[in-house]
Design goal:
Blueprint (H helix, E strand, L loop, with lengths): L3 H10 L11 H24 L7 H6 L1 H15 L4
Length: about 80
């Protein structure tokens, strides 16, 4: 069974179409691009949220490394801000 959040992201990516199975090739391409973008952005948000508040001061010392990781992920997948 697919993760609930993945399903939610797929529904969001397909929000301007009624039925996923009725998509033509161009619409499918747009859907897949949006769906992938939403998954990548969700993963990037987890990098920021991966530390509890009490660890934030220590985390800030490592923020350069985490920003580098986020940048490399974006570059790898071609995600633009």
């Amino acid at each position: 069974m697919m993760n609930k959040r993945i399903v939610e992201l797929a529904v969001h990516a397909n929000s301007h179409h009624g039925n996923f199975f009725d998509l033509n090739y161009k619409e499918l391409d747009v859907f897949l691009e949006k769906f992938a973008e939403l998954i990548i952005k969700e993963c990037l948000s987890k990098v920021d949220a991966s530390h509890p508040l009490e660890e934030r001061s220590e985390w800030r010392q490592n923020s350069f490394a985490e920003e580098t990781i986020k940048c490399k992920i974006k570059q790898h997948f071609g995600v633009e801000e």
